[in-house]
Fold this protein.
Amino acid sequence: MAEEANVAAGGPTMMDRVNEEFERIALADKIQSAGFDPDCVVRFDCPSFDDAAVGMTSDGRLVYDYGLMIKSMARKDGISEEDAMEFIDYNTIRSIPYAGENAPVVMFRFDRP
């Protein structure tokens, strides 16, 4: 019953939460296969943008694709890409300086529309 009320209110379904956990595990495996300790890598986790992670820097910082972050948030939260961009710019990009020297990197692609 609570699951149905949450979904009706626009919240994530149980399947959405399961998919996010699989993304998180898959990203941890990718980080480890790149030679880094997943427990020591700083990630964006509220909200999670694991599906927008595209690589690592040589010093062990996770790299996210800004365009993929927007698409991910719009898809997961059922909002417009414009609203997702506004949220990410205000809440995520502005938080990077406070994440320390191992803060994630957000990549802005040259071919971004």
